[in-house]
Specification:
Chain lengths: 451, 401
């Protein structure tokens, strides 16, 4: 049956037929080795990575003669390692997850940029979609954002439910302008925003976005800006003055902005504009994947990564995310508890409530369970335990009762107590001296009396 | 400036013209050299500073009308920081007293920072997060370490992460190793250093800039031991920070010298300027400040010359052009309107009588229940009786009973 599936014409179809045959559990990778003569993989492509957890690997030229399994595996070893690094996790991924504990000089520039881009692991995220309309008199904008979110964004977030909770909202802002004046470019017959000035676009808008005040979770903002009629059309150009086809940019750990040009060529203002949400979500979705840490570095040569499917997230990408997030959670929880222990060692007279002690012990228990599950490879359970460990350790560390304000340096202690006790000690000392001299005199008197 | 110097030193016409041509040429040449360097610098800027967001914690620790200058100091820094891009949601502003609406303020709703009322730093969109008696050492340390009760609103929290650059500005009255809060408590330099260490262990900052404008301010940063902290102070140990100028109409000193020259320096900075920290260290030399400003950079990993002012005072975002798009082919599923149709209410609504004045005016006073006399009265009478019987003897009792 698998032979039939692998005899399909394209790799994508073969992938889909293979799924229907078996379901691979979370955390596993199934590699199908096809002979070199097979046509399922296109020319020049050695590995096709599918939507679920399968990969198709083309065997090398030296596999013509039938040999033992061990030699087969030995010759394919380098390729298999590369497949695992792409689909599961690599040394770089784990180093990035432990980025807080790795010295900054040890990481490359690309590693630094990657670690700055995605949000840190958090139990929940808030996502806000905003439509900015600076010119309501010219454009009457209609966007069916609820349908778009439920069709394109919600499947991704539901698939990522084991990793974190997400809450989505949307808003429309009128008379919200960008902080930068675009320049008119006669060659393009359009207005342009250069990449250098994009850094200053976000700040004036952010004050009006109203980041949600309900929780302390990180907020991702996705803005859709429709330029006013005086500055239409508006294109974003990169450093080399080429226009960007997506007309969008993103800021690490903040969100993304897309500029949507409309043809306001109607005679009567305001012009009714129905925004093509598919195109918009086609840009916001990869930005969202970047922010959440799903995207990875460019694959090695000879690899072809298949499209991510309806949910916008391949199964192996979710596995990789769960590996790295579990490791990150375990590392963060361990550091938190260690620093809490150090803090309590330093302060001798702090009072630790029972609930903090309970939270610490349950965090330690969850950590041990999470590490055990990671060793076995049960990603779902490991993720769950690591999230519990993080929650408990953060609650214990940030408990309001642990604030210590009692700092008594030694010289201040002397300065306080000496003026109190010294005057009291003077008569005590004097009377002690008097008693001592009396005791010394008594044998003398006794002798005198005897005489 | 150059041409002015040339005209001042002009002796005869020939030397004047040649000098003028030389200065003009040099003026034209230098910008082109600077521009090529700028493009490279901007390309590498993404990687040079490792921060993605900026926070600011601005604290004024003194109350009473004659400490007007401390509130004006803090508000000037607040104004600069807002102007350079940091939003209110990322600023924690703590003012120990309200000078704008103080009953001694001859110009209410204003806080001026220049003589002759040139600059009103209070503005009309000030958001004070901790005000009045909420500015205590405990609250300040809670904000820094994050140990706030769960009911604290988001605007009162410092929600920084490991990629945040934080600017902390303290002003008030201080001494050797301490800073006075509200005239009733102090924070010591060891507590502050410990708080920063707690922030570092939880990675609540990427880099921290600490500025303090008090007397003997340098003593407050002596004890820091966490990495990535840069500190500036307005005066060394043993010196006093002096105030700048009194205003005769308002009747108090308006600003402290160090912050006054700091504000002047910051007014020249705009969000895309490339001025670095070395220029900030030169602000307010001894000739202007009378005290010697100090700074500490040994804990900072980067070279101060490569740190931009806007890395801490502004909020310059890193941006990346989006190159990948996904071609979505599935059609959009339109949600049915699941909201129930509301029936129209048919009953007439009336307002309830909120303050029944007629009843209150004609009300009779309520009869209070009788209570036995209080302890004090009882004790007093017991004392009087005891004294009477002590003086006149106990045998008189039989006359009474």
């Amino acid at each position: 049956m698998e032979e039939d599936a692998l005899n399909q014409s394209t790799a994508a179809e073969a992938d889909i037929s293979l799924h229907m045959l078996s379901e691979s559990p979370s955390g596993s990778v199934v590699i199908y080795v096809v002979p070199e003569s097979s046509t399922v993989l296109p020319e020049g492509v050695s590995v096709y990575v599918g939507q679920r957890r399968t990969a198709l690997l083309r065997a090398g030229g030296q596999m013509r003669v039938a040999v033992a399994l061990k030699e087969v595996l030995a010759s394919l070893e380098t390729w298999i390692k590369q497949v695992l690094q792409v689909m599961s996790f690599s040394h770089g991924d784990i180093t990035a997850a432990l980025s807080d504990r790795v010295r900054p000089g040890d990481r490359s520039r690309e590693g630094l940029a990657d670690s700055m881009r995605a949000f840190k692991s958090s139990p929940g995220y808030e996502i806000t979609f905003s439509l900015l309309n600076p010119d309501p008199t010219s454009h009457l904008l209609h966007w069916d954002v609820e349908a778009a979110i439920s069709s394109y964004i919600q499947p991704l977030l539901s698939k990522m439910a084991p990793v974190a909770n997400f809450s989505i909202d949307s808003q429309i802002l009128y008379y919200a302008v960008l902080g930068v004046n675009p320049r008119y470019d006669p060659t393009l017959n359009a207005y342009t925003l250069n990449a250098d000035s994009l850094s200053h676009v976000i700040n004036p808008v952010e004050a009006r976005l109203g980041s949600s005040a309900a929780s302390s979770n990180p907020v991702l903002n996705f803005l859709l800006y429709v330029p006013d009629s005086r500055h239409s059309p508006l294109h974003i150009t990169d450093h080399r003055r080429h226009t960007v086809p997506s007309n969008a940019f993103s800021s690490p750990r903040w969100g993304g902005i897309m500029v949507y040009n409309v043809n306001a060529s109607g005679t009567e203002l305001p012009v009714d504009v129905h925004i093509d949400m598919r195109r918009v979500m086609g840009v916001f979705l990869p930005q969202l994947r970047l922010m959440l840490g799903v995207q990875s570095a460019a694959p090695p040569p000879g690899f072809l990564i298949g499209p991510c499917g309806n949910a916008g997230l391949a199964d192996w990408e979710l596995d990789r995310l769960m590996w790295t997030r579990s490791v990150e959670n375990v590392a963060t929880a361990t550091t938190t508890i260690t620093s809490l222990a150090q803090l309590l060692d330093q302060i001798g007279n702090i009072v630790i409530n029972d609930n903090i002690a309970e939270q610490v012990s349950s965090a330690v228990a969850s950590l041990q369970l999470a590490v055990g599950q990671l060793e076995v490879g049960n990603l779902g359970l490991a993720m769950q335990y690591s999230k519990e460990a993080i929650l408990q350790s953060e609650r214990a560390f940030f408990d309001p009762s642990l604030l210590h304000l009692l700092y008594f340096p030694d010289d201040q202690k002397f300065a306080i107590y000496i003026p109190l006790f010294l005057p009291m000690c003077v008569p005590i000392l004097l009377s002690l001296l008097k008693m001592a001299s009396e005791v010394r005199q008594r044998p003398g008197q006794g002798q005198a009396k005897k005489d | 400036m150059g041409t002015a110097g040339v005209s001042a030193s002009c002796i005869n016409m020939a030397s004047c013209s040649s000098l003028k041509i030389l200065t003009l040429l040099s003026l034209f040449l230098s910008p082109t050299i600077v521009e090529t360097n700028n493009i490279e610098a901007k390309a590498g800027q993404f990687f040079s500073s490792g921060h993605t967001n900026n926070w600011a914690v601005l604290v004024c620790t003194s109350r009473f009308w004659f400490n007007y200058r401390h509130v004006a100091n803090t508000l000037s820094v607040y104004r600069s920081v807002k102007r350079l891009g940091i939003p209110d949601s990322h600023i924690v502003l703590m003012l120990a007293d309200d000078m704008a609406c103080n009953h001694r303020n001859p110009k209410p709703a204003t806080v001026f920072s220049h003589k002759n009322m040139e600059l009103n730093v209070y503005g009309d969109d000030v958001e004070v997060d901790y005000r009045g008696y909420e500015v205590t050492v405990e609250n300040f340390l809670r904000v820094l370490t994050g140990r706030l009760p769960p009911s604290t609103p988001r605007s009162k929290r410092l929600l920084s992460d490991d990629r945040s650059n934080i600017l902390i500005y303290l002003t008030g009255h201080g001494g050797n190793g301490f800073l006075k809060f509200q005239d009733s408590e102090e924070i010591s330099n060891v507590e502050l250093a410990d708080a920063f260490e707690q922030m570092w262990t939880k990675r609540r900052y990427n880099e921290l800039l600490f500025i303090i404008d008090t007397c003997q301010g340098a003593s407050m940063y002596e004890r820091f031991y966490s990495p990535n902290i840069m500190a500036l102070a307005s005066s060394q140990v043993g010196e006093d920070s002096l105030s700048h100028q009194p205003d005769l109409a308002i009747g108090v000193h308006l600003m402290d010298r160090y912050t006054f020259y700091l504000l002047e320096f910051l007014e020249d900075i705009h969000p895309s300027s490339t001025t670095n920290m070395k220029d900030l260290f030169k602000v307010c030399p001894k000739s202007q400040c009378v005290s010697t400003p100090g700074h500490r950079t040994d804990l900072f990993l980067r070279d101060p010359g490569s740190v931009l002012i806007t890395d801490f005072f502004g909020s310059v975002r890193k941006v990346e052009i989006t190159t990948d798009t996904i071609n979505l082919t599935a059609p959009m599923v339109h949600l049915e309107d699941t909201r129930p149709v509301r029936e129209l209410r048919t009953e007439i609504q009336t307002y309830m009588d909120q303050l029944p004045v007629a009843e209150i005016i004609h009300q009779k006073p309520k009869q209070k229940d009788w209570h036995p006399p209080d302890g004090f009265i009882l004790g007093l009478w017991t004392l009087i009786l005891l004294v009477f019987f002590k003086t006149y003897g106990i045998k008189h009792l039989k006359h009474i009973f």
